[in-house]
Amino acid sequence: MTHSEIVGSTTVMVSAGGETTAAAITGMTYYMLKNREILKKAQEEVRSSFNSLSDITTKPVENLTYLNAIIEEGLRMYPPNPASFARRTKKMVEVIDGYEIPPNVRIPWPRTSKMFLLTLL
Ligand code: HEM
User: Fold this and answer.
1) How buried is residue 47: exposed, middle or buried, by Cβ count under 10 Å (0-12/13-18/19+)?
2) Best probe residue, ligand 1, of 12, 20, 72 (max atoms within 8 Å of C-beta)
3) Mind listing the pLDDT tens digit for each residue in 45-83?
4) From CA 27, how far away is CA 65, in angstroms rounded?
5) Closest C-alpha to ligand 1, atom 24
6) What residue spans define the domains of the chain?
7) Predicted TM-score of the model (pTM)
């Protein structure tokens, strides 16, 4: 990688990955502290799966089904990025969910409403 590629990638990782990850962990911790039974089950899963801190690496963590469910549900309940990165329709009429949308229209879809809509379906 060139120096400017390293600087560019680092900037993206810090700005896109820093606050998002911190906010996600904060939300998940909040909900677990409010629901001690869930926290206890997660602790049991982690403690029964590993013998030492150094055993906790990416691959075996993928098998922690309960913890991964907490992460999925935490992201749904507490989306770190609740706003929407809008998309713009292209040069022709597009049909979205049965509606004809003219060209060049900006369509935001707030992530929070999407997450809570999924609860109702
Ligand atoms: C819990 C943690 C994270 C959350 C909630 C999150 C959330 C998001 C969201 C909502 C988008 C926009 C998707 C869209 O286009 O609508 C996005 C894009 C992106 N995120 Fe993350 N992110 C997280 C972690 C990270 C990390 C750790 C990195 C990098 C190390 C990262 C790098 C990026 C990049 C590069 C994009 C742009 C992708 C593209 O459009 O090509 N994110 N993220």
Assistant:
1) exposed
2) 20
3) 999 999 999 999 999 999 999 999 999 999 988 888 877
4) 19
5) 17
6) 1-81, 82-121
7) 0.80
